[in-house]
Recover the amino acids of this structure.
């Protein structure tokens, strides 16, 4: 464990609770809806952010942690919070050099308040950030050549292995496990952790159709090959990342009223909307235990 177990000393709530909710939109199709409350793991390192960051924090072993994200990245927020809680220096490489010198939005303001040093790069450089020469140049420019680097969204082999526990927690308790996907690391781990039989369903929140190959690559790096029964439904991105239409906003507000659960809009709302639509399409056989992973909750500004 990192620094004599300090990651564990943050007292995560594991396993996270599994809560059955009564919702007629599922019940009339014979489907039981279960909410896997990963949003309750830790008040600041929420959901899949804990599961992906914890193994990387251990590997960082006190070195500066450098990672990447957009101006509204929940991953940057969680990394900055982890740095503050553990006394670990953090650097956030932010997409968009036009943001430098401007007033920070609430998300980046929170990162800075938690001690994260923000380094803005132009979008062309950001697109090439995984290339060795570009990454080396970014590290030099940020003044942290010896940093431990975590990729955008936190998805690497260590993170995928960390997310495997989420699938293991649902063994014997669900027939389908569904979750929203950004970089695919959580789904890659969940599918590997499930016992034979249950399947994992990913709802990408970005357009592009590239995520399947990303997940296959992550599983190859983490486990040596494809693991588990998983698939993606690409129809419910609502225009792409950070896009929240009036229809999606109305759906999320209604779900909150029905179940008293705060619904994070960029990921969780899209996955829940997708599951309601799929139930109406008859995608789940009667008797299905459908576990929807609540991968995060709305951050306070």
């Amino acid at each position: 464990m990192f620094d004599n177990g300090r990651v564990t000393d943050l007292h995560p709530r594991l396993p996270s609770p599994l809560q059955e909710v009564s919702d007629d939109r599922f019940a009339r199709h014979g489907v039981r809806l279960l909410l896997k409350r990963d949003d309750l793991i830790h008040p600041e390192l929420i959901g899949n952010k804990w599961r992906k960051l914890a193994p990387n924090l251990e590997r960082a072993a006190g070195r500066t942690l450098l990672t990447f994200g957009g101006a509204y990245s929940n991953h940057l927020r969680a990394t900055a919070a982890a740095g503050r809680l553990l006394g670990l220096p953090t650097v956030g490489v932010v997409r968009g050099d036009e943001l430098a010198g401007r007033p920070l939005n609430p998300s980046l303001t929170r990162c800075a308040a938690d001690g994260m040093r923000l380094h803005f790069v132009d979008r062309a450089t950001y697109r090439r950030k995984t290339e060795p020469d570009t990454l080396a140049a970014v590290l030099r420019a940020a003044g942290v050549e010896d940093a431990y680097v975590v990729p955008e969204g936190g998805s690497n082999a260590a993170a995928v292995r960390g997310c495997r526990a989420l699938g293991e927690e649902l063994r014997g308790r669900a027939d389908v496990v569904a979750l929203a996907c950004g970089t695919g690391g959580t789904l890659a781990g969940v599918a590997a952790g499930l016992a034979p039989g249950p399947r994992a369903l990913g709802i990408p929140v970005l357009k592009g159709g590239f995520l399947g190959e990303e997940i296959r690559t992550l599983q190859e790096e983490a486990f040596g090959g494809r693991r588990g029964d998983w698939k993606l439904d690409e129809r419910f991105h609502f225009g792409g990342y950070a896009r929240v239409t009036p229809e999606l906003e109305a759906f999320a507000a209604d779900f909150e009223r029905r179940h008293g659960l705060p619904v994070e809009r960029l990921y969780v709302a899209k996955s829940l909307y997708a599951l309601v639509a799929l139930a109406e399409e008859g995608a789940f056989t009667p008797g299905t235990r459908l576990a929807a992973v609540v991968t995060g909750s709305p951050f306070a500004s």
About this structure: Residues 1-5 have pLDDT under 50 and may be disordered.
